[in-house]
Amino acid sequence: MEIEQNVWGFTPEGEAIIIYTMTNSKGSSVRISNIGAGIVSVIIPDRNGNLDDVALGYGRPEDYFGDGPCMGKTPGRYANRIALGKFWLDGKEYHLAQNNGPNHLHGGPNGFANKLWTGRVETDRVVFNLVSPDGDEKYPGEVVAEVVYDWNDENELEITYYAKTSAPTIINLTNHAYFNLRGESTGSKAMLEQKLQLNASHYLATDATQIPTEISPVEGTPMDFTKPKSLGKDIDADFEALKIGHGYDHCWVVDKWEKGKLCDVGTLEDEVSGRRMIIKSTQPGVQVYTGNWLQGAPLSKEKKEYENRDGVAIECQAFPDSPNHEQFPSTVLRPEELYQQTIIYRFETDK
After folding, report:
1. Can you give the three-state secondary structure of the chain, one letter per residue?
2. Has 146 been annotated as catalytic?
3. How confident is the model at residue 148, as a pLDDT?
4. What is d(CA 16, CA 9) in angstroms, rounded to the nearest whole number?
5. Are 200 and 254 in contact (CB under 8 A)?
6. Quick check: 351 pLDDT over 80?
7. Exactly one of 104, 106, 176, 325 is catalytic; which is it?
8. Which residues contact 26 (CB under 8 A, 6 or more apart)?
9. Which residue is catalytic, options 106, 315, 325, 348?
10. Could you read off the pLDDT of 282-336 as tens digits, one per residue?
11. Which among 147, 153, 220, 341 could disulfide-bond with 37, CB atoms 3.0 to 4.6 Å apart, if both were Cys?
12. Whether 315 is catalytic
């Protein structure tokens, strides 16, 4: 494994923005940066051995700060939504920023995704650290978070999250990369032709503001991906959940999930290029977001404008609004505990 480390730019305060390029023995590579501990590119072969970038991203490092799509980054402290920006913990109510309509989203406007993390190379991996002080975005407790990227010769990208806290808090970390397995510049038509399969027989139905209301079966609905189905097949169906999300922007419940166990989440496949992405995770849910609001995002790496649905984010995570649902797996972290979660994206071809 070869890892290069380069200065990509500087923040307005003069801090260095670093980009790390991890290249395996087959010539496939992953580029990550210390802005939000995020993925910038994933360059892998198609069935004929042609390399292409399958992760959406921006051309300028400064565009990664404060962007709406949260492109490739690590949202936190709490990825996804918290209803009305409120939750109770140990008898105390906390009020967070309402930055997504009436709700709190991705840890707030100055959450983990918009911070400059401290990065380092450890032999064949890249590790990012962040200290989030007590009261950061109005969350309790000082949290020390770590994101570890491993990339191997089997084109397997493993992301491991760790966190410790000085006081009881809530936490939910994931990666918000957008993928298009035909190539990041091939557009929405290519993305919508790609087939998704999820090991999930239930999803979280939501209210009009995308806060979960109940766990619902996917059978007989456009939300059913238990067998491979193109993302575009039912995306515009006359179905309330799809109207609310303007397409897919929902959390599915991973079948046979057990705390701390690495589970098979699903597969994304592009028949034209022959590329396939296999997803595994220790998280109970997976948010699938078909980039329904990508239009207006910063210019791509090729200086092109992104359009809606040019890429799909498959975010393994805890359930949205878990602190307000006792029946959901807990997202509470206490000082004596270690938060640890893993996501694996394995890239293969059909040849």
Report:
1. CEEEEEEEEECCCCCEEEEEEEECCCCCEEEEECECCEEEEEEEECCCCCEEECECCECCHHHHCCCCCCCCCCCCCECCEEHHHEEEECCEEEECCCCECCEEECCCCCCHHHCECEEEEECCEEEEEEEECCCHHHCCCCEEEEEEEEECCCCEEEEEEEEEECCCEECECCCCCEECCCCCCCHHHHHHHCEEEECCCEEEEECCCCCEEEEEECCCCCCCCCCCEECCCCCCCCCHHHHHHCCCEEEEECCCCCCCCCEEEEEEECCCCCEEEEEEECCCEEEEECCCCCCCCCCECCCCCCCCCCCEEEEEECCCCHHHCCCCCCCEECCCCCEEEEEEEEEEECC
2. no
3. 98
4. 6
5. yes
6. no
7. 176
8. 45, 153, 155
9. 315
10. 999 999 999 999 999 999 999 999 999 999 999 999 999 999 999 999 999 999 9
11. 147
12. yes
d(CA 244, CA 210): 7
